[in-house]
Amino acid sequence: MGKSARNPSDPFGESEETRGQSRARAAEARKAPPKRARENDEKPTGIRCGPLIMMLMIVGGSLLPALAKLADSLGHLGFTWFKTDPNARLLRFYEAHNPSKLGEVPNVVRKYRGREEELFSKLEAKYGIRP
Questions:
Q1: Are 99 and 93 within 8 A, CB to CB?
Q2: What is the pTM of this model?
Q3: Lowest-pLDDT range, 4-13, 20-29, 78-87, 112-121?
Q4: Contact 131, 101 (CB under 8 A)
Q5: Count of alpha carbons within 13 Å of 11, Cβ hemisphere only?
Q6: What is the DSSP string of 26-91?
Q7: Are the C-beta atoms of residues 95 and 102 closer than 8 Å to each other?
Q8: Structure confidence by residue, pLDDT tens digits, 34-93
């Protein structure tokens, strides 16, 4: 088959593609190597770790003291999984700051039972360090 007849509705006078030309174009397309998808072209799925780690590094330093304070205050409200043993806390404090008072720990804890925060506030005022 040769060229098809001219399309009268075509204002530029171009003819349609012949069947042979169409087959040749398709054959050329098959010969061309397929385009490889680059890694950057694909959309990432899941959580990207880089930005998450960066955010934790920036924000984490200021959140840790706040979380520690929250856990401490929840312990005073009666949440037992956050509550620290006042006896052990006072022992650690006196071991570090005044070892001569280690023998008085049981009496001090008994005296301030239920008012441990008052005891630790007084120790902070006296030594300048939060027990």
A1: no
A2: 0.39
A3: 4-13
A4: no
A5: 0
A6: HHHHHHSPPPPPPGGGSPP-S--HHHHHHHHHHHHHHHHHHHHHHHHHHHHTT-TTTPPPHHHHHH
A7: yes
A8: 666 555 556 667 778 888 888 888 887 888 788 777 777 776 666 655 567 888 888 988
